[in-house]
Specification:
The complex is a heterotrimer of chains A (about 250), B (about 280) and C (about 270).
Chain A (H helix, E strand, L loop, with lengths): L4 H11 L10 H36 L4 H15 L3 H19 L10 H26 L3 H9 L4 H31 L11 H9 L5 H30 L7
Helix pairs in contact in A: 2-3, 2-5, 2-7, 2-8, 3-5, 4-5, 5-7, 6-7, 7-9, 8-9
Chain B lengths: L1 H19 L6 H8 L1 E7 L7 E2 L6 E2 L1 H13 L2 E7 L4 H7 L4 E7 L2 H6 L1 E2 L5 E10 L14 E5 L5 H7 L3 E5 L2 H9 L5 E5 H10 L6 E2 L6 E10 L4 H17 L1 H8 L6 H9 L6
Parallel strand pairs in B: 1-4, 1-5, 8-9, 8-10
Antiparallel strand pairs in B: 2-3, 5-12, 6-12, 7-10, 7-11, 7-12
Chain C lengths: L2 H9 L11 H19 L1 H44 L3 H16 L2 H11 L3 E4 L2 E4 L2 H27 L2 H9 L4 H31 L11 H12 L2 H33 L3
Antiparallel strand pairs in C: 1-2
Helix pairs in contact in C: 2-3, 3-4, 3-6, 3-8, 3-9, 3-10, 4-6, 5-6, 6-8, 7-8, 8-10, 9-10
The chains are: A mainly alpha (about 250), B alpha/beta (about 280), C mainly alpha (about 270).
Chain lengths: ~250, ~280, ~270
């Protein structure tokens, strides 16, 4: 970080009544920048693992086998109709305690608050992805499936080679939407002390009078992150475009 | 489209900042004109502030002090439950007139808030963990995950001086729940409350406070908005009077808090009036 | 497996011998059964929960109040912003679009923090003070993103009506606003209703975020209760109760929405 422009920025901000003094405190500045990095990490990890979860659940939902399809449906309904924050608390306080007990003590439990945020967000948004993918799979034309069957494809091959590639294309806008929501939901990590940007800012403003200043910074960070995800989504959408499908 | 986004961000910031530009009146005048004093208290557990399970009413030292202040001011008491994470903002906004959340005096806080110079007590950080942790002193905490409340003054010394991995939970109950759930190695909060917890509650029998000394023991004071000397002076008179009448020691003991040497020192300054 | 099997299983549900029980009845039955089992085995815990039930009910009332107010404010605001977005004037359309972008891309938790810590605690009108309590601030923190989503829903619905209808109306001599009011909007209602209800369910679940700024809604009441009782079994049960209450409130809404979606899909 350049040494000269930072004090200049802080002084300029002060002249319009904004107190960005925390940027001059090496400890607080490092903590805040760390927060931004953790937000990016959580978003990236969450997006990848939620997509995997989503595909697995979507496969179960469309398997046509009651012993797969029913539990998957129940899971999706449970996840979609309960608050994410309560899910995080339940996981972190209740499930984590039960796991610790089962493993014979917390020292044997490798799951941290960070891990729980990734797990809960992946399952939560995985359920949303699954719904979008299921709709996509159901939108695959019947003729497509029939021709795959006549070519001797097995059910799994049909899913992975015919249905999913098409379904992902159909579902992509909804998937990107869910990813943007996931990025925003990483802010919930602050409730269980995961050091992402909301938490880092909160730890600075609790002992200062710079809430407004930090809020502006946080909003800019999330605006940048969500625009980045949406932008990458459009890029991928264009790459995936097949002649004859979509506009 | 890009221009529209930037414009929007700026517009929203200006709008939100504009709404916030309101100021509170001088506290004492306002208390008098309204007939109500609004005190921010923390309800994180005995002995300072908690909800009595039997009556579901607020109790504890903070509540007793707030009651007495309201009585002396001739005003009705309204308490607002605050957390370490929001108390400073609530005071600065004017949502509360005073803060008695067992909050210690340190230079950082004194820079942004006003306070009553005579303290009503003191507190330092106690360290609670599972029995058999092998920890005996503060510097054993290096790289251990230690939970505190968001806004706790223990966060800084733990992280900067002892190299602990500090996690700020939204409140003390959350931090203790996380300790019980095994997500924190230990929790650090005001020691008096933690001592009561392990003494009173059989659910906490596997936990102990293995470090004998408190972390940064500091005087607890009543906080007001910066620069409001009137209320500071009036309240300072009250607190000195509490020493003189012996009421402070009485209420401190009633809430099962130990009388510390620092309190004795202040008591010596304002000796009890001869009866 | 025969190839026809693959085809038929995918497209039509397996034939049922028993009459179809609505899944909502199944769910409520399952939840009730689970709680009965718990009540049987953990009599003591459940009676403690029962003692705290009035407090929890008060909390839930706050969630419902906040969510209803937030969606009401959000709908009015969103309708206005959505209409502005469609306006032809550049200086009206761009700020409206920016508003939608900002409030759709900001985490609701951050907006609630913003409203709570940055807005004043009271508003002065001359010499009278109007209190501005935290739960109303949280409501605004929820209404802002709601309005941005609703603006998008309205805009999408209006744009989904083919331009031929606008042209036909114009040829009948209707003005732009008359066309909007008498031709386009009535058709929009059907398209708007399902996503609007989904949004309401989403807002309802987000009301729990208000607990992080100290509003005593359901989650906060539950935390107060756990803190006071301070027993592990009670902590587990109360979090389960919070999950169950939200599920029972939101699941019927999303089921009904799904039904409406299917019904309107063919029109």
């Amino acid at each position: 970080m350049s040494e000269s422009w930072l004090p200049a920025f802080v002084a300029a901000a002060r002249s319009v009544g904004l107190n960005y003094g925390f940027l001059l405190n090496a400890f607080e500045r490092a903590a805040w920048i760390d927060g931004v990095v953790v937000s990016i990490e959580l978003s990236a990890l969450g997006i990848v693992s939620s997509l995997i979860v989503g595909m697995v659940i979507a496969a179960a939902l469309t398997s046509g086998r009651p012993y797969l399809d029913r539990p998957a449906r129940a899971f999706v309904e449970l996840v979609r109709n309960t608050p994410t924050l309560v899910q995080i608390f339940c996981a972190f306080f209740v499930v984590n305690m039960l796991i610790s007990q089962a493993l014979g003590g917390p020292q044997n439990n490798p799951l941290t608050a960070y891990a729980w945020v990734v797990i809960v967000l992946s399952l939560h948004y995985g359920a949303y992805h699954a719904e979008a993918l299921r709709a996509g799979i159901e939108a695959v034309p019947r003729a497509m499936r029939e021709s795959a069957v006549s070519l001797g494809f097995s059910r799994r091959e049909i899913l992975t080679h015919v249905e999913l590639p098409l379904a992902v294309r159909f579902a992509w806008p909804s998937l990107v939407n869910n990813m943007v929501d996931l990025v925003k939901a990483t802010s919930l990590g602050s409730a269980i002390a995961v050091g992402e940007v909301t938490y880092a800012s909160l730890m600075i403003w609790v002992n200062g009078d710079n809430v407004l200043e930090l809020m502006i910074f946080i909003l800019l960070v999330y605006a940048a992150l969500t625009l980045l995800v949406a932008g990458l989504g459009t890029l991928v959408e264009n790459r995936l475009r097949m002649p004859g499908y979509g506009q | 489209m890009k221009a529209a986004r930037i414009l929007g961000a700026l517009g929203a910031a200006v709008f939100l900042a504009g709404v916030s530009a309101a100021h509170a009146d001088a506290t004492l005048d306002r208390v008098k004109s309204r007939g109500t004093v609004v005190v921010g208290v923390i309800l994180s557990g005995p002995p300072y502030g908690y909800i009595d399970p039997a009556t579901q009413k607020q109790a504890g030292l903070n509540i007793d002090l707030a009651d007495e202040i309201a009585r002396r001011l001739g005003a009705r008491l309204e308490t607002v439950a605050v957390t370490p994470a929001n108390r400073v903002q609530f005071l600065q906004q004017g949502k509360v007139d005073l803060l008695i959340p067992n909050m210690q005096l340190n230079p950082e806080r004194a820079e942004i808030m006003g306070y009553v110079p005579t303290p009503y007590g003191d507190a330092g950080g106690g360290f609670i963990t599972r029995k058999g942790s092998g920890i005996t002193q503060w510097k054993d905490l290096k790289d251990k995950t230690v939970c505190v409340s968001q806004g706790s003054n223990y966060a800084k010394p733990l992280a900067e001086e002892y190299g602990a991995n500090v996690k700020g939970m939204p409140s003390q109950p959350d931090s203790l729940l996380a300790l019980k759930a095994g997500s924190c190695f230990a929790s650090v909060h005001d020691s008096a409350g933690l001592h009561l917890l392990v003494e009173d509650n059989p659910e906490w029998k596997d936990f102990e406070l293995p470090i004998a000394t408190d972390l940064i023991p500091l005087p607890s004071v009543i906080w007001v908005r910066k620069g409001e000397k009137d209320i500071e002076n009036v309240l300072d008179g009250f607190v000195q009077d509490w020493y003189r009448t012996g009421w402070l020691f009485e209420v401190t003991r009633k809430n099962r808090i130990k009388i510390t040497p620092l309190l004795e020192e202040w008591q010596a300054k304002y000796p009890a009036a001869k009866k | 497996m025969a190839s026809e099997d693959i085809l038929t299983l995918k497209t039509s549900p397996s034939p049922r011998v028993l009459p179809r029980i609505p899944s909502i009845v199944l769910w409520i039955g399952a939840v009730a059964l689970a709680w009965l089992v718990l009540a049987h085995f953990y009599r003591d815990t459940m009676s403690t929960l029962w003692a705290w039930a009035p407090l929890l009910a008060g909390g839930l009332r706050m969630n419902v109040l906040i969510s209803v107010l937030a969606i009401a404010i959000g709908t009015v605001l969103g309708a206005i912003v959505g209409a502005l977005e469609l306006s032809r004037g550049r200086w009206i359309g761009a700020p409206a679009k920016a508003y939608v972008q900002v409030f759709r891309n900001a985490p609701i938790l951050v907006l609630i923090f913003f409203a709570t810590y940055v807005f004043p605690f009271e508003i002065r009108f001359g010499s009278t003070y109007l209190p501005f309590p935290d739960w109303i601030k949280a409501t605004i923190g929820l209404a802002l993103p709601a309005s941005a989503h609703i603006a998008e829903i309205f805009r999408g619905a209006i744009l989904s009506i083919t331009s031929a209808q606008w042209e036909a109306s114009a040829s009948l001599g209707l003005s732009r606003s008359q066309t909007l009011r008498w031709v386009i909007l009535p058709q929009c209602v059907k398209r708007v209703l399902p996503p609007w209800m989904n949004l309401y369910a989403m807002i309802t679940m987000s009301t729990t975020l208000a607990s992080l700024v100290g509003v005593t809604e359901l989650l906060e009441s539950a935390k107060n209760a756990t803190n006071t009782v301070n027993r592990t079994d009670f902590t587990i049960i109360i979090y389960l109760a919070v999950l169950t209450l939200f599920f029972l409130y939101c699941y019927p809404i999303t089921r009904f929405t799904a039904r409406l979606e299917r019904k309107y899909a063919f029109h």
